[in-house]
Write a sequence for this structure.
């Protein structure tokens, strides 16, 4: 078997092989030039696994994204996608070979972070990826969805000065792109949506040009600072995503959606952990969490570079003993944080924590705490206070959240 890079000339065979691996059939691009979800593939970043007889049997690809780290720091990240092996060649080492080849290639490009969305939760941990952001779905009985009066005047979620305008997706693509880009730069765990994605309509709504209504919030000066993309079918209003500059704008958009006529329930997809919606309702039980799942998985390719890239909010130090069994590596690092900046250097000091690189990926953005993974039996704390010190050190200013699908 050979694993080789792809070019633009491989697009058709790459797409056909990938779809066959998932038992799907490729869509037909729209006549108006709108792309299908895979139309933003970067074919200079793809891989084909080819059998000895020349038949393609596996695919893997990567997008070029920016990831927002704690502290509002933007760094490049490879978005791993289109990973599949034909049913005829599974459990023969094809996937493992592609993953090893891809990680080696990413390092050769100078990249220190990779991210993906896992189709199955059991697959990617063995390749060093750990779940790092989470997403939930909340459904509200609209007739019981009245807001409670704020108990503290002047709270941060109070209605902002501004207005909500209703637009069609076809009429506001540039607006959506601009609002999302401002949002993702301040939200830890968020990924960029490159202009090419919007131009091609590649991805899921509202990037895709699938018909949607869009509630756009404008501030007192008329500048758009939030939106919610939605559909209404058989009495259920389903919100693709809610993007807003702050909690007050989010509240204004949710209030608009909960006031929509001819609706029996409103389902909000992709809400971050700890979203205050249920607490904002007069009837707490009017909102039900219908799903709570992992979303973005993170893989560190260069631990010192990754740890010194993000922002930090507590001074301190930890000795981390990091095992990377997939790449056959084991290193011990001294992480020192002073005034929001970190240093990370090799050390022979006794460790405070011993952990797998996948678990370091899970705590990297602050979405999971080291203490939780210690209690789960995945991370070993060598001192009684090590987990608590690590929890304080890896704290993020807000829960990481990723809306982007790729």
């Amino acid at each position: 078997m050979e694993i080789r890079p792809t070019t633009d000339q491989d697009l058709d065979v790459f797409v056909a092989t990938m779809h066959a691996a998932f038992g799907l059939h490729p869509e037909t691009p729209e006549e108006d030039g709108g792309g299908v979800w895979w139309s933003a593939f970067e074919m200079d970043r793809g891989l084909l696994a080819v059998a000895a007889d020349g038949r393609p049997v596996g695919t893997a690809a990567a997008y070029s994204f920016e990831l927002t780290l704690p502290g509002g720091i933007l760094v490049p990240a490879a978005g791993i996608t289109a990973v599949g092996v034909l049913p005829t060649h599974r459990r023969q080492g094809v996937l493992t070979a592609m993953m090893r080849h891809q990680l080696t290639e990413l390092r050769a490009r100078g990249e220190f972070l990779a991210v993906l969305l896992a189709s199955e939760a059991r697959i990617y941990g063995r390749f060093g990826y750990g779940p790092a952001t989470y997403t939930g779905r909340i459904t509200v009985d609209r007739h019981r969805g009245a807001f409670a009066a704020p108990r503290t005047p002047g709270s941060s979620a109070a209605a902002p000065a501004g207005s909500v305008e209703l637009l069609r997706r076809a009429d506001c693509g540039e607006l959506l792109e601009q609002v999302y880009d401002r949002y993702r730069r301040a939200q830890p765990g968020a990924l960029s949506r490159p202009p090419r994605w919007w131009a091609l309509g590649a991805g899921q709504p509202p990037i895709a040009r699938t018909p949607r209504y869009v509630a756009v919030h404008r501030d007192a000066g008329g500048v758009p600072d939030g939106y919610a993309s939605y559909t209404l079918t058989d009495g259920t209003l389903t919100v693709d995503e809610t993007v807003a500059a702050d909690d007050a704008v989010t509240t204004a958009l949710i209030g608009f959606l909960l006031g929509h006529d001819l609706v029996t329930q409103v389902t909000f997809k992709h809400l971050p952990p700890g979203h205050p919606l249920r607490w904002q309702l007069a009837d707490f039980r009017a909102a039900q969490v219908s799903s709570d799942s992992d979303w973005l998985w993170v893989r560190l390719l260069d631990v010192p570079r990754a740890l010194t890239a993000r922002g930090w909010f507590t001074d301190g130090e930890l000795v981390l003993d990091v095992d990377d069994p997939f790449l056959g590596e084991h290193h011990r690092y001294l992480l020192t944080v002073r005034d929001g900046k970190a240093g990370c250097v090799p050390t022979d000091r006794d460790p405070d924590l011993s952990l797998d690189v996948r678990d370091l990926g899970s705590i990297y953005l602050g979405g999971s705490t080291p203490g939780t993974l210690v209690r789960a039996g995945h991370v070993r704390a060598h001192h009684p206070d090590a987990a608590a010190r690590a929890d304080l050190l890896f704290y993020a200013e807000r829960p990481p959240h990723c809306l982007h699908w790729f």
User: Anything to note?
Assistant: The first strand starts at residue 2 and ends at 5.
